[in-house]
Amino acid sequence: MDILTAVAKRHSVRSYTDRKIEGETLEALQNEIDTCNKESGLNIQLITNEPEAFNGKLAHYGEFKGVKNYIVLAGKKAPDLEEKCGYFGEKIVLQAQMLGLNTCWVALTYNKKKVQASIEKGEKIVCVIAIGYGENQGKPHKSGFIDNIFRIHGDMPSWFMAGLQCALLAPTAMNKQKFRFTLIGNNQIKAESTGGFCPGVNLGIAKYHFELGAGDAEYKFI
Prior knowledge:
The protein is α/β, with parallel strands linked by helices and 222 residues long. The protein folds into two domains: 3-132, NADH Oxidase; 146-221, NADH Oxidase (3-Layer(aba) Sandwich), CATH 3.40.109.30. Helices cover 33% and strands 18% of the residues.
């Protein structure tokens, strides 16, 4: 499975089997997390065989079942922390999909006090990602309208359209897709949140998806 196939096939999964993440799959997942931490400066941690963070009223409300593994997205407090967590968290999510795992972004419906992560002074947990072998592969959700997520003057380059189409497949809070990409000139893009819950995380996820769709096109975010 290549990464664009993973984008199309990956859906949120809330119910998991007892199968453990181990062996080469665990090693590859941890290597991806280590790479993302090195590149971003974040403190992303994989917690396995730990059910307490998803054992309570909040998880029940969120309809989670059998979650014993999760990824903690954390880092030093900064204006761009949420966006970085979204961007690099989605890189890990899609790598997990290619490894045959399932995932679900979780912002509220888990017990933060029970999370078994080592958080340094000056850091904060932004959100977590439930991960494991799902009881199913999840269901696709209806994407928004492409006209709502971009602005452009003049003709639209094919790479820009491809980036937008991939961004529409990005998982966002309540599937609201509150982000916008504006093409300025021939190759400058302003990416911005248009509100909603977890705006920074949503924007980071969408930007990573846009990059995947745009491929090798020459452009830069401003």
